[in-house]
Description:
By secondary structure, this protein is mainly alpha-helical. The protein contains 5 helices and no strands. The chain starts with a helix and ends with a helix. Pfam families: CcmH. Residues 1-20 form the signal peptide.
Amino acid sequence: xxxxxxxxxxxxxxxxxxxxxxxxxxxxxxxxxxxxxxxxxxxxxxxxxxxxxxxxxxxxxxxxxxxxxxxxxxxxxxxxxxxxxxxxxxxxxxxxxxxxxxxxxxxxxxxxxxxxxxxxxxxxxxxxxxxxx
Length: 133
């Protein structure tokens, strides 16, 4: 009885693993890799810090299906990303492109660090000048 239960549990576990991998069947390993890459590279618009692969939101499921259909049709990464950014904006990308709108996002930390260093250096220089005078 115990052995039957154990064998049953193992079979259920193995069947669920097989079913989990066939949700989005693709023709080739290259398309599978492209699909997985895109799902990891695109952001869920509902769960903002999750990618499409990990999100369980309804919109993420719809976007996964859309990406799957486009990969299955043979579209390239850039075509799929262009379609999604035209529809949802750059926010869907984890790495938005450098534009005038995102300039501060990309270079702001360096600029703030540089300004902070200059203020610190000038403050130290003034204190040193006062102490020596």
